[in-house]
Amino acid sequence: MTSECSPSASWTALPLADLHRHLDGSLRPDTVAALAAARGLEVPSDLPFAPGMGLEAALARFAFTLSLLQEPDAVRRVAAEMCEDAAAEGVTTLEIRFAPQLHGGAPMEAILDAALEGADGRAGLTLCGLYGEPPETLRRLAELGGSREGVVGLDLAGGPTPGHHWRMDDYAPAFRRAAELGLGRTVHAGEGRPPAEIKQAILQLGARRVGHGTTLLQDPELVDLIIERGVTIEACATSNWHVGAIPAVEAHPIPRWVALGVPVCVCTDNTLLSAVDAPTEHARIAAIPGMDEAAMRAVIAQGHAAAFGR
Ligand SMILES: [Zn+2]
What we know:
This protein has 310 residues and is α/β, with parallel strands linked by helices. Helices cover 41% and strands 15% of the residues.
C-alpha cells in the first residue's frame, strides 16, 4: 500500500476533484496577456475579484475575458490549459463549464467542439445558460449538450435581477429535456440570496447539484430535502468571499454542512479571477474551525462521487 492510499495519510495526499470551474474565469494570466496583445487590448488592472465586491461587479469582470474568447482557437487553447493546470494541481476529476452562446465568433456548435477538442476527454463539460436568458436558449443548450459526447451537464449561471423577465420555473422544460438526454443538472442558487432559490432549483429544475448555496442553513426543511435527495453543494468559499456572499472564508458554513450530513464538495469557481487553485481552496477550507481530517476526506470523496457522467 502506498502512502497515497493509506488511511493514515493526510487528506493533502489525496487526488482532488473540481466540479465547478468556469472557462471564462480560469484562463492563465500569461494567456490573458497573449490573447489581449493579439487583439490590441490592454488588460484591465482591476480584472481580479476583490473581497466584498458584490456579485454584479464580479459578473461584469467576465466581459473582458469573454472578449478574448470569441474564437474557437482561443476556446480550444484555454480548455486545454485548464486541463493541464488542473492535472498539475492534483485534480483527477474535473468539470469545466461555460456558455457557448456568449462566444459569438463562431456558431455555438463550433465553439463547443473547440472546447471539447481542448479538453480531449480530460474533463467533462457543462453548458451554462444564464439567469435572464430566454428559456429557448437553455433548451438549445440541452439539445446541443445531448448531441455531444463529453458534455455532462446543464447549468443555470449568473444571478437573477429584478429586471429579468424569465423566472426559474420558466427553465423547467429545458432542465427536464437535459434529464431526458442523460445530462446532469446544476444551478447557481442561494449565492447570498434567500434559500427559497435553492429549493426552487431542486424542485423545479431537478438540480442534482447546487452551486454555492451559502444560505442553505436558513431553512432547516431545505437541509432535510437536500440530504434526502442527495443533492451536492458545490462550495466555492473564496469566490463567495469575493462576491460578498460570506464575510470571510472562515465564515463559510461548510463545517456545519458536513456535520449535518449535507453532501458537499470544494470547488474553485474561477482560478484566474479569484487567484486560486484547487490545493489552495482546499487548504483554506481545511483551516476553517470544525473542518478536521475526516471532514476533509468526506468533501474530497464527494467531489469525485458527484461528478456528472453519461
Ligand atoms: Zn460559478
